[in-house]
Amino acid sequence: MVMSPVGRVDDVQELRRRRPTGVPARFVRDEDERPNPDALVPPMSTQLPLISLSRLMEGKGDDGRCELYRLAEACRDWGFFQVVEHGVDPELMERMEKVATEFFMLPVEEKRKYPMTPGKVQGYGQAFVFSEDQKLDWCNMFALGVEPRAIRIPELWPKTPPDFSETVDRYSRQVRKTCDELLSCISRSLGLRDARLRETFGEAVQAVRMNYYPPCSRPDLVLGLSPHSDGSALTVLQQSPRPASSAGLQILKDGKWFHVHPIPNAFVINIGDTIEVLSNGRYKSVEHRAVTDGERDRLSLVTFYAPSYDVEVGPLGELMDEGNPRMYRTYNHGEYSRNYVSQRLQGKKPLDFAKLP
User: Fold this and answer.
1) What are phi and psi of 343, to 5 degrees?
2) pTM above the 0.90 mark?
3) Residue 230: how many CB atoms within 10 A of its CB?
4) What's 93's domain CATH number?
């Protein structure tokens, strides 16, 4: 069991160990929330756009222009894309996955030493739980604030495995560079200066969250993670392509759920609510969810990259005119973040905070 704002929440790994064929009622979704095959695009029928970051950064000749066009199209039409040649060491990606797996395989008593306390999103447990009758996700989470260092909670950084902290640090530094470069390219794809988006951020906030989804005997009744969009500017997802792991990410497009199949050494990138606001709706955040598998587990590593909590966020003036009137108000990003984590995951509802009447 782990703590939540409304008491104790069952640890899904322990549930799976104790009752391998049972699913407690609190995890069973209402019928209209369950994974519905009729609303799912067949696997492998569509692939996310694939972008090369190295080509984007070179930005020269036809290749660079074509890659920038593909990026703009992916951000506008999908809100998601996969990125390769991103500069993060594949061996470090593998090591990060290994230490995260080792942490989740620790005895539950050891993991409880790093609890996610009520109303917080750092530590081990389940976030976004606010009522006793709320349906729970079939997932264990471990989340840490990384940058700026003032947001770190040192007592939540585990001592086991012994190289956990060093690996998270090295991995996060490389991913941060990737985020900076992607943000420059997205700025350029909007017809802005490379630095235009980045200069609105102040000292960017970065967090990492590890999600572990054990097998579930009734994957048709549960969700690994409820549908939601991200409050960040960019989200960087690493999900293992190994055959033993379930590819559980799905995104909502045109009223249908699409599978996202991982590519070796690629990151899945999605546009967060903050980019939707800054771009005045030209690029939109997209609902996504995680589903479970009856036999296979899944691990995902998620980096959130967002503006400093003390900056004001609103549509950029260059992206508003008579044909593109202001769609969102200007607000304090820290206030938006507090609003986001104070409610359960429910689609794009948190973005109502920023929308004009």
Assistant:
1) -140, 160
2) yes
3) 25
4) 2.60.120.330
Which residues, 6 or more positions from 18, have their beta carbon under 8 angstroms from its beta carbon?
none
Sequential DSSP letters for 6-42: TEEE--HHHHHHH-TT---GGGPPPGGGS--GGGBPP
Q: What is the per-residue pLDDT for 126?
A: 80
Separation between Cα atoms, residue 149 and residue 102, nearest integer Å: 24
* Of 169, 200, 262, 271, nearest in space to 230 by CA: 271
Taking a C-beta distance cutoff of 8 angstroms, is the pair 4, 129 a contact?
yes
Question: Which residue type sits at 289?
Answer: R
Answer yes or no: are the C-beta atoms of 314 and 277 closer than 8 Å: yes
Tally the C-alpha atoms within 13 A of residue 289's C-alpha that lie toward its C-beta.
Answer: 24
Element (H, E) at 140: strand 140-147
Task: Name the residue with higher pLDDT: 119 or 157.
Answer: 157
Question: Domain range for residue 222?
Answer: 2-353
Rounded to whole angstroms, the Cα distance separating 251 from 253 reads: 6
Our count of domains for the chain comes to: 1
